[in-house]
Amino acid sequence: MPQMISKLILGFWVMVWSAALSAGTLTAELDRTEGPIEEPFVLTITIEGNAASALDLPKIENLQFYQRGSSQQHSIMNGKISKRQIFTILVQAEKPGVFTIPSLKMEIDGKPESSLPLTLRVGTGGSAPSQTNPKTGDPGEAGVDDSTQGSSGDLENQQVQAFKNLEKTGGVFVIRQCSPTSVYVGQQIICNVRIYHPGNFNSGQKVPENSPEFRRFMPEGEKRFNQVINGRRFGVIEVTEIFVPLKDGEKVLPSFTLDAQVVSWEHRKNPLDKFFDRFGGGAFDFDFSFPDTKVIRLTHPENKTEIKPLPKAGQPPQFKGIVGTFDLSASINKTQVVAGDTVTITLSLSGKGVLDTALEPQLGLDPSIKQYADKPEYREKIDRTAGVESQKTFKIALVPSKQGNYVIGQVAVPIFDPQSGQYRVLSHDLGTLVVTPGQAEEKLYALGKVAEPSKQAVKEQGKDLFGPHEIALLGGSHTLGLKAIQAMAAVSLMGLASPLLALVWMGRRRRKEGDIAGSRRSAAHRHFKAKTKTALLHLEGGRCEEGLSLLYRGFKEFLGDLANTQGAAMTLKEIEEFLKQRSFPEETLKKLVHLLEKIERVEFSGQTPDKEVALRWLQELETLAHGVAS
């Protein structure tokens, strides 16, 4: 019986080996046959069966081969064993032309095998997404001036530093280039951030990092392309950051830090290796590979920048800190109105730069013309190449109270243009406003002065049927009865008690009104505290923009409840006037208005502070709201 089992096992392995010794194949394929010189070709070589020697690539003038990976597969199906090896190779041309990869020859499963020859046509640059050189690794893009991306020396230094740590980072690294490296306060700095990976980058989470010395903007979207550096092929993800410096001096830009999920493959031995080694003579290799994802924090070398202060020489006296390249447009909807009617002036600044903090231009009009400013309209566009472009529109309602000709004249807005390094004054002439008297005033202003109304003598219009009543004098023969005396006393007491009753009634009414006002304040404050709790949850969860928006709207609703008006529609000016009427302390009022301006700026510009700053604002606003409620 044991001998029979041994013969069966031997017969099984004879069948397996005879199937394994079937003829193999050798194939070679290109991902495409034509392309620009900037983009490498991908050559895939597949070997089916057992090769007698290692893969040997041909040497072709002006054509370089870089092996990028290989995989090996074994399978048993219906008693047949198959082995497959796949090699991935980058083919990079050094100059345009037509190249032929000759037939590859190998001995597979004891028989000579060969692949078909391949032809590729390499054109000149201009159509590929990236321009690369496998020897120098220069990643400059076609059609883009590298001078705008930072110096090539800085790029090479970053690459050298990154290549030292490839084993630690799983082959993933970050490079950031910023330009210009010397700017004025308020001038934009555009940084291109490139995330290089060999195909194992799963995802990434940007680590927030802010600085009180810079404002940071990040345009939406990204650019993806492939690149060869030092003979290695990388996928590249490019994003853009924009910084606006707030203080002068030698500064370091806040870094771009990324928590990257990097995939690696862990090779593990098959637990049946000993069995196959014993009965298969080591011809079988069934090792397993398992993916493993690790989170690696990546950053880049620091970017130093010289921030120059705005020059004092030539600075206009009305300069309010606007930096950029802007234009001014201005218009008035009517140039002739009746006294008491409304005229609207529209002023609009637009161009390259950040205008969210720009203040309303001063008109310098006659005091008899009342001015009412609407809430400014602000629009912002963040472009990967042009940077931040913005527009801010001011609308001012004018109400003249007297007739006359009023010169509005030039509206002037001083700015600093960082491109020329000089101050400019944007101006627009709004002409003259002609005010005529209203209908009720036309007669009074007929001769240019107010006419006094004429007086008329008193005339007798008629007579009563009865003459005036004569007052009967109380003489010695007249006496007062008890009832008359009691009536007179009652009338006297009522005359004395009426003021007292009136005072008691007014006091009770005031207490009632005070109780109603106190209840309203308490209810409004409770409602605001509920809003702050929800806002706090948003802030602690890192959703600062949602939290501050809720906080801002909740405080305005709180004030609206106190003022018995629609709080959401209240402007900062109306809030200030309302609190002045409540005798709110002036210094505290200034602090409150300044805090609301900062939160409003976040509400309408989308530029969110870090969590610590937002939490501090919430605490300050809670304290101020308590003072208002009390």
Describe this structure in words.
The protein is α+β, with helices and mostly antiparallel strands and 630 residues long. The strands form 9 sheets. Strands 10, 12, 14, 15 and 16 form a 5-stranded antiparallel beta sheet that branches. Strands 21, 23, 24, 25 and 26 form a 5-stranded antiparallel beta sheet that branches. A hairpin with a 2-residue loop joins strand 15 and strand 16. Helix 5 runs antiparallel to helix 9. About 8% of the residues have low confidence.
Described by its quaternary structure, the protein is single chain
Shape: elongated
Note the total helix count: 9
Strand percentage lies at: 35-45%
What are the key terms here?
five-stranded antiparallel beta sheet, about 625 residues, alpha+beta, 30 strands
Question: Mind sketching the topology for me?
Answer:
Elements: H1 2-20, E1 25-30, E2 34-36, E3 41-48, E4 63-77, E5 80-93, E6 97-101, E7 105-108, E8 111-114, E9 118-123, H2 152-164, H3 166-169, E10 173-179, E11 182-184, E12 189-197, E13 201-207, E14 214-217, E15 223-229, E16 232-245, E17 249-252, E18 257-268, H4 273-280, E19 288-298, E20 304-308, E21 324-332, E22 336-338, E23 343-353, E24 369-373, E25 377-383, E26 387-400, E27 404-407, E28 410-417, E29 422-429, E30 432-436, H5 482-540, H6 544-563, H7 572-581, H8 586-605, H9 611-629
Parallel strand pairs: 2-9, 11-20, 22-30
Antiparallel strand pairs: 1-3, 3-5, 4-5, 6-9, 7-8, 10-12, 12-16, 13-18, 14-16, 15-16, 17-20, 18-19, 21-23, 23-26, 24-26, 25-26, 27-30, 28-29
Helix pairs in contact: 5-6, 5-9, 6-8, 6-9, 7-8, 8-9
